[in-house]
Write a structure and sequence with these properties.
single chain; alpha+beta; binds zinc ion
């Protein structure tokens, strides 16, 4: 069972829903960053949210979703492309907090004194950036508030990550957006449907997939599926890209690095290590002179 997401729209065109299963993505994030349980839930929710808002991107479009709530986890950053690839990291992956009401304390670990930022690079001159203050640091309601503040879209978001002794048991989320002209009479119906989806990770753990999540969110409303897309934790880093960043450093910094036999540059997003020799660095300095 691979991770994927599904988009659907009500037949009258006024309600958009996207649902994703992200169990494998969150598992891999936990592994590559050695995430604590609380960090797994926090970054897992943000990874899922990043995918849910990435629909509609094309070609080389990318999106970055960042949260800094002043809590012990520090910054959380995720980055998605148009092909369903997402990656992300957190400043302090080891932070663990005591359970709060029997649940992982994501809000306490993220903090709520800060902002959520969304940057979309759609290949235009300037990337689009929106931001909104955090409501709770729990991510889902922060996303709902963000969409209202920055795009005046009325929406509902549910995100969940279930962590057990063996690791990530289930993860996923659903985002429902009401477009201009929606039928006010359907709002009670949708709210009742949403109440049943509040514990979404437990629902996904029982084997419920994105189609069924959409069906439950839109129970009583006619809709059609727009598309289905496989999603995965995939990093776009490469040795060439890291080299391109190193070549921008000052000569002095490169010379200092040459004091070591080998320089290891680690990708923040996926932990991949790229090794450069003294000779590589010498080449960088030479190439810079040639520029
Ligand atoms: Zn990477």
């Amino acid at each position: 069972l691979k991770d994927y997401m599904i988009r659907a729209i009500s037949l009258d065109g006024s309600i958009r829903v996207v649902a994703a299963r992200t169990t494998d993505i969150v598992s891999i994030a936990r592994e590559v960053h050695n995430l604590s349980n609380t960090a797994t839930a926090a970054l897992g929710r943000l990874l899922t949210a990043g995918l849910l808002v990435s629909t509609g991107m094309k070609g080389d479009d990318t999106l970055t979703l960042r949260v800094n709530g002043g809590g012990p986890l520090g910054n959380l950053i995720v980055d998605a492309d148009a092909d369903g690839h997402i990656r992300g990291y957190v400043s302090h992956p080891e932070v663990e907090l005591p359970l709060k009401n029997g649940k992982l304390d994501v809000g306490g670990a993220v903090g709520s004194e800060g902002q959520m930022y969304l940057t979309k690079d759609l290949g235009l001159k300037e990337p689009y950036t929106g931001s909104a203050r955090l409501i709770s640091g729990e991510i889902a309601e922060d996303m709902t508030y963000f969409l209202w503040q920055s795009e005046q879209i009325r929406s509902a978001t549910t995100l969940g990550v279930l962590v057990g002794k063996e690791g990530v048991l289930a993860a996923g989320g659903l985002l429902l957006q009401l477009l201009p002209g929606y039928d006010e009479g359907l709002v009670d119906n949708i709210e009742a449907n949403f109440a049943d989806l509040s514990d979404i990770s437990r629902i996904i753990e029982t084997g419920v997939g994105p189609e069924e999540l959409v069906a439950r969110a839109l129970a009583g409303i006619d809709y059609r599926i727009i598309d289905e897309k496989e999603v995965s934790f995939t990093c776009r880093c490469s040795k060439d890209k890291v080299a391109a960043a190193l070549i921008l450093l000052e000569d002095e910094e490169l010379l200092e690095m040459m004091g070591d036999e080998r320089t290891v540059a680690k990708c923040h997003f996926c932990g991949e290590e790229y090794v450069f020799t003294r000779e590589d660095l010498r080449e960088f300095i030479k190439n810079k002179k040639a520029l």
